[in-house]
Design a protein that fits this description.
Blueprint: H1 2-14, H2 20-33, E1 37-45, E2 54-64, E3 70-76, H3 90-96, E4 103-106, H4 107-122
Antiparallel strand pairs: 1-2, 2-3, 3-4
Helix pairs in contact: 1-2
């Protein structure tokens, strides 16, 4: 996937940047310079009894094919870290290590991966 290769290159070029939000912003700007319709998106939610509050930042690219059909591509440069646990079982550690550190893909693919990880987490 061309977008994946470019995203990976730009993240590597960012080097040792400590602030991940700066890396995301730089990646989004580089992808725009490459001709992509890229946006930096942020989602946040309040804490409930079932879920702690938090926020999530990712890059959203809208690609339009020759027929005018648009496709959303999501990029998360901290993907694997989203599934880290304080005291994981060895099975969870083994499975979560198979996740890519950087996710680049369609929304449907992301939903499937997150659903599998949620089921794995709830089985602990």
């Amino acid at each position: 996937m061309e977008v994946f290769d470019k995203a990976l290159k730009h993240v590597r070029d960012a080097g040792d940047e400590r602030k991940r939000s700066k890396v995301k912003k730089r990646l989004m700007m580089r992808l725009r310079m490459d001709g992509y319709d890229a946006s930096l998106c942020r989602s946040s939610w309040v804490a409930t009894m079932e879920c702690p509050g938090g926020d999530y930042e990712f890059i959203d690219i809208v690609m339009v094919d020759g027929n005018g059909v648009s496709t959303r591509i999501l990029i998360d440069i901290d993907f694997r870290s989203q599934f880290e646990l304080a005291r994981p079982t060895s099975a969870y550690t083994q499975l979560s290590s198979t996740l890519p550190p950087i996710f680049v893909g369609k929304e449907e693919k992301l939903k499937k991966v997150v659903s599998c990880c949620a089921q794995l987490h709830s089985s602990l």
